[in-house]
Amino acid sequence: MFEKEYDVIVVGGGHAGAEATAAAANMGSRTLLVTMNLQTIGQMSCNPAMGGIAKGQIVREIDALGGYSGIVTDRSAIQFKMLNKSKGPAMWSPRAQNDRMRFAEEWRLLLEQTPNVDFYQEMVSGLLVDGNKVVGVRTSLGIDIKGKAVVLTNGTFLNGLIHIGEKQFGGGRAGERAATGITEQLVDIGFDSGRMKTGTPPRVDGRSLDYTQMIPQPGDSHPEKFSYIDTPKLKEQRDCHMTHTSALVHDLLREGFDRSPMFNGRIKSIGPRYCPSIEDKIHRFSEKEAHQIFVEPEGWNTVEVYVNGFSTSLPEDIQFKALRSVKGFEQVKFFRPGYAIEYDYFPPTQLKHTLETKLIRNLYFAGQINGTTGYEEAASQGLMAGINAHLRVNEKEPFILKRDEAYIGVLIDDLITKGTEEPYRMFTSRAEYRTLLRQDNADIRLTPKGFELGLAKEERMHRMEEKRKKSKDFVEFFRKTSFSPKEINPILEEVGSAKVKQSDKMFKVFSRPKVTMDHMMRLSSVSEYVSNHTLNAEILEQAEVQVKYSGYIEKEKNNADKLQRLENIKIPEDFDYTKLKSLSSEAREKLQEIRPITISQASRISGVSPSDVSVLLVFLGR
Predict the structure, then answer these.
(1) 270 vs 346: which has the higher pLDDT
(2) Taking 90 as the threshold, does the pLDDT of residue 236 lie above it?
């Protein structure tokens, strides 16, 4: 039934699996995607949205490298917002609401149009392992499929268990069975595994809601998009809405706490800290009388609605009674109740930075199997695992992104060096170089790398180079060109900034906090330059950020360069930390277990102190 041997086999067709498949295939590997249901490739299991705080930056990074998530998002978007615009550009984060059905369809069609991709629908129940190397997979029908590398992206399906009140049943998500066999085999081999939990809210019939009692949440008046290539911009958008819970709703929910799997001990695993269930919120924040509920349409034409903020595993009768007491939901009809799901994961300290496992060569883990939560986090890991599986098979150098190069680099480094005991979610605060890692410059940072890998096409590279050159030249124009006080003072007076008495370079006045590009465009020489050089909004934004934040950007670059020196000090692979008695016992234990590849990585491991790093530096001869 199958080729003699695939280069890369990807197990699971969620966000991680889809990106891994696309990456390996686009780089030239003969790739097989094996999934339990070909109709749910790229399925949005939870909310119908992509991006958000730090997550939007990740989607832009995936796109810049040549991945598909940004393209799929743009083609299926129903609303776009740039979050945090009132803050500095390091915090700006794009977010899109999506048509759930179109999103999955776009993923399926894109993969079908990708050369080198084969598909097979069945459950993978085990791995074929020869010594310490994976050589393929075994399906539930007992079919052996040979592969040089295997990427596991099993999501919430490994021994998945769904909870609704006191009821529980096996499943990877609503309506789909769990995957069995893989965890048990990996544990027998010597892997550590654990359990995590996530939850999802009820889906309801939008025709039964009273939107007049809710607050509309429209998209941006000038919506942007995710991809750096020619994907469509939104011409019309669908509104989301906001409403709130109340003291009455909270009292009704508390009636079911004794039957809640979270509170009666049925669920023992840890859920996502930053996306708690509604019962968790009213338990932990009992002083709050109301919580926000976001009412999100699931698509252009469907009436199905996602009740964001009401994630729950309470009994269905309690869910129904409480939700009917929320303003606008008085006549609500359920499509399905919310539920919690427990699933197996493998602590990611068992991986290398390439996402290859330390115990089994050519075996890669990506997505929720590594303890992360979120489509974007999963997709980025899938992309990196697919790239590195291809490189490994072709005996090429691995591809690793550093912390000052991408949020993807921060994410993977955090997982590998620190591990996680709760579902890991990306935030801008996790990145020490977030002024460098903005959503507006992901193409400038990463497209050259994607092009070198063979993932980003020539068209991307050409666009990026044009953007970089034009924005750099425009910044230089501000550095060299002077303004006249007569022209600039009315603007300064308007924004409440001190007037000037003599001419100076535009860069200096443009650097002032309240002066924007729109203000500068009122100067004849600036508007003339923009017109003559046909500068688009993207280039204007890039130039404005470079001018206004040049000091911060330069400072972060210098800090990154200093730390890069520690990144260059490699630790031998077979280094025996137990012999270094000067290390603290905790550092010895953690270093021996995680086996960092550089001093910089060692310094980020929890429990390794600066004095431990000094000991290593002395021993390695600096």
Answers:
(1) 346
(2) yes
For 589-620, b/e burial (b = at least 16 CB within 10 A) is ebbeebbbbbbbbbbbbeebeeebbebbeeee
pLDDT tens for 550-572 read: 988 898 888 888 777 778 888 99
Cβ-based neighbour number of residue 557 at 10 Å: 14
Q: How confident is the model at residue 162 (pLDDT cuts 50, 70, 90)?
A: very high
Take residue 215 and report the two structure tokens written for it: 């607050």
Q: In sequence order, what are the residues at sequence separation of 6 or more whose Cβ sits closer than 8 angstroms to the Cβ of residue 474?
A: 529, 530, 533, 535, 539, 540, 543
Integer Cα distance of 579 and 328 in angstroms: 66
Interatomic CA distance for residues 178 and 163, integer angstroms:
13
User: Counting every residue, how long is the chain?
Assistant: 622
Separation CA 337–CA 115 (nearest Å): 40
Sheet of 49-51, strand order: 49-51, 93-98, 77-83
pTM of the model: 0.93
Please report the pLDDT score of residue 565 as a whole number.
79
261-313 per-position pLDDT tens digit: 888 888 888 888 878 899 999 988 889 999 999 999 999 999 999 999 999 99
Round to whole Å and give the CA distance between 164 and 145.
Answer: 37
The torsion of the CA quartet 286, 287, 290, 291, rounded to 10 degrees, works out to -60
pLDDT digits (tens, 9 = 90+) for 90-133: 899 999 999 999 999 999 999 999 999 999 999 999 999 999 99
Q: Do the Cβ atoms of 270 and 421 come closer than 8 Å?
A: yes
> What average pLDDT does the chain have?
94
Q: List the one residue out of 212, 570, 149 whose CA is nearest residue 366.
A: 149
What's the burial of 285, exposed, middle or buried (CB within 10 Å: 0-12/13-18/19+)? Answer: exposed
Is the CB of residue 376 less than 8 Å from the CB of residue 426?
yes
Residue written as token pair 């991986």: 351
Tell which residue, 298, 301, 322, 331, has the closest CA to residue 210.
331
Gyration radius of the chain's alpha carbons? 26
The yes-or-no verdict on residue 622 having pLDDT over 60 is: no
What's the CA gap between 569 and 587, in Å, rounded? 18
Residue 272 tokens read as 């996502």
Terminal CA-to-CA distance of the chain, rounded, Å? 56
DSSP symbols for 147-197: EEEEEE--TT-BT-EEEETTEEEE-SBTTBPPB-SHHHHHHHHT---EEEE
User: Which of 151, 33, 22 is CA-nearest to residue 456?
Assistant: 22
pLDDT at residue 348 is higher than 90: yes
Question: Which residue from 132, 128, 45, 60 is spatially nearest to 93, judged by alpha carbons?
Answer: 60
Alpha helices in 333-406 (DSSP H): 375-393
In this structure, are residues 571 and 594 in contact, taking their beta carbons and an 8 Å threshold? Answer: no
Which is higher by pLDDT, 599 or 189?
189
Query: How far is Cα of residue 606 from the mean position of the Cα atoms in its chain?
Result: 23
Provide mean pLDDT across the span 479-506.
94
Percent pLDDT > 90 in the chain is 81
